[in-house]
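Re: Re: ligand-bound prediction request (bumping)

Still looking for help on this. To restate: I need the protein modeled with carboxymethyl coenzyme *A bound, output as structure tokens. Inputs repeated here so nobody has to scroll up.
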Amino acid sequence: MMVCEYKPGLEGIPAAQSSISYVDGQKGILEYRGIRIEELAAKSTFIETAYLLIWGELPTKEELAAFEEEVRLHRRIKYRIRDMMKCFPESGHPMDALQASAAALGLFYSLRDLHNPAYIRDSVVRLIATIPTMVAAFQLMRKGNDPVKPRDDLDYSANFLYMLNEKEPDALAAKIFDICLILHVEHTMNASTFSARVTASTLTDPYAVVASAVGTLGGPLHGGANEEVIQMLEEIGSVENVRPYVEERLQNKQKLMGFGHRVYKVKDPRAIILQDLAEQLFDKFGGDKYYDIAQEMERVVEEKLGHKGIYPNVDFYSGLVYRKMGIPTDLFTPIFAIARVAGWLAHWKEQLAENRIFRPTQVYNGKHEAPYIPLEQR
Ligand code: CMC
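Reply:
Sorry for the wait, this slipped through. Here it is.
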């Protein structure tokens, strides 16, 4: 067997061959199926982009209408799932609630028919359609309210915001939210996608695939960073405090949340678009003092860490966008998951098409021939 050098974090080691997305970390380019995200953000919708990623091509008018309709018709969740969610502690994190609910779908749809394209499509539709409903339902139930039913007359993003806030959203806010989903839907072989592919490679069901990816996305080094960015901006509190805060953290060898990326060595192209979206919201609904702090922080961090290629990543400005929409901080990562589920499912489908179970090796650095010491002598 070929022996490879051990790389912590598997840095630089390809885990799959994939045609779903592409990143150039030096030039700050991200493409989905070859199309630049700037173009998709300006011209597409989340549902169309999800279709593109999963089936490989932009849909025709008829294909798009059919997919939108299928997703629309599957937005409702079973009352038993809702009742199960009612038993979740309200103090629990919504990502844990989402992981448990996504896994529970597998109990209700236990038929597994991975070679059947109709099964693949049904599972894709069900997951994309119900994940937002589950996120919104947990939010209302933890406040002691009944979840509201999805509204079939609203588009995907407008319906989610309606279910979350119990009122029809502003049109600009709904459009911007949809663009945020496009920006978060896919990003090559990141930790949660790797997790999805490893789980998929065992030929388990797609609900287990998504549940394992949701669990991986939640950590502060991955999707959870967007929450921590807001907490960090709150802790800093004023523009004057930015420099001393950054200097102190760097002195203590602590990370600055929302900065740095394994692949990007320039400003993340998604952060550039998100910053613009935040500004559009501020223009319409009024500014946010945390935006001034964030801009100053970007300047100071560039000055201190730019030479190491550390710039804002996708999580730095997304929280400011969601905050302006009145979304609670601990829902930022579940919203990331609402988008990313389509990326995970694209990888699930790709993995199944050429599956081999993941079974990496390890570098053993433990003992050999160790004696068994009897309990009374230890
Ligand atoms: N603040 C300060 N220093 C940093 C940061 C940061 N945010 N990120 C990297 N560095 C430094 C790090 O200290 C190290 O320095 P040195 O070589 O002197 O020891 C060097 O840069 C390499 O860092 P690393 O942690 O080995 O890099 P990595 O590729 O393993 O980690 C990362 C990538 C995203 C986990 C890391 O940059 C980080 O922890 N960032 C903060 C958390 C964050 O914002 N995560 C969101 C990532 S993007 C969206 C997503 O994945 O969901």
